[in-house]
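Changelog-linked ticket: beta-D-fucofuranose example.
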Amino acid sequence: MFKRISALVLAGLTAMSVASCGGGSGGSGGGGDGSITMGFAQVGAESGWRTANTKSVQDSAKNAGVTLKFSDAQQKQENQIKAIRSYIQQKVDVIAFSPVVESGWDTVLKEAKDAKIPVILTDRAVDSKDTSLYKTFLGSDFVEEGKKAGQWLVQEYKDAKDPVNIVELQGTTGSAPANDRKAGFAQVIGADPKFKVIASQTGDFTRAKGKEVMEAFLKSNPDIDVLYAHNDDMGLGAIEAIEGAGKVPGKDIKIITVDAVKDGMQALADGKINYIVECSPLLGPQLMDLAKKVVKGEQVPARVVTEETTFTQEQAKQVLSSRQY
Ligand code: GYE
């Protein structure tokens, strides 16, 4: 099984090119015909958000006439580093990637810089001190998302006198969205001591892990009032665990999640989730625009923040049928 997976990853790294022909073996330097080749190192396929993000990148590359070399790192940093090195070797015009964790990128980013290949961070940030290692960072403000989750909670329990027991399902350990969604939330609820985070653990942004960790939370904590999950998928897994324990999600335990993918919005409309903070995966069109500019050597803003909203149960019912992802 593992052998097969790594063979697939390798094949992906060396050969896979979603749009055929175009930039040839890369190094078209923005190509005489204006075509460019992008190497994109994706995190994985861990969530509905990620699937929608991958589709957005692939569709937008096609529409923009960008030749895309795409690889899936299966949530492992070493796979992403290998993919980036392979793109450097292939002399692509631009590298874009969504770093699975924040730390440990300086060496490979320096290699790209030495090879004069511009890098765009998409979706997640790195903690490198040297910001000349990448041209721009396109993605959400995850601290703000965590704050929005906290603000809803503060409002919802504004009249409560008793302690509010919260459990938290964190995203992938060391990832920007896990670090920042935790920090933003803690900052807002921290102002009132009645809010108590009684357990907080990673569910790695997946449904299966969300379910497993929630089962453990339920066993060791008989009195949980609120679940804050860093994404919809973990929240959806947790709902199964809550129902399995004979409790009613959305009522016995209030649930806040982040993302607003279709399955999450459905659960919100059904009353099983109470509030969702939106995080848009549709980064493809902006990414292609930025890529064309950096390849031409044009100035781009160092930070491009995606616009996002929040959804209550009533709002979810209204917009559900028109959600794209
Ligand atoms: O919230 C989660 C995904 O980096 C914003 O990654 C992204 C997060 C998203 O797995 O569902």
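Closing comment: Example verified and attached. Residues 46-47, 49-50, 123-124, 177, 205, 231, 233, 258-259, 279 surround beta-D-fucofuranose (CB under 6 Å). Residues 1-28 have pLDDT under 50 and may be disordered.
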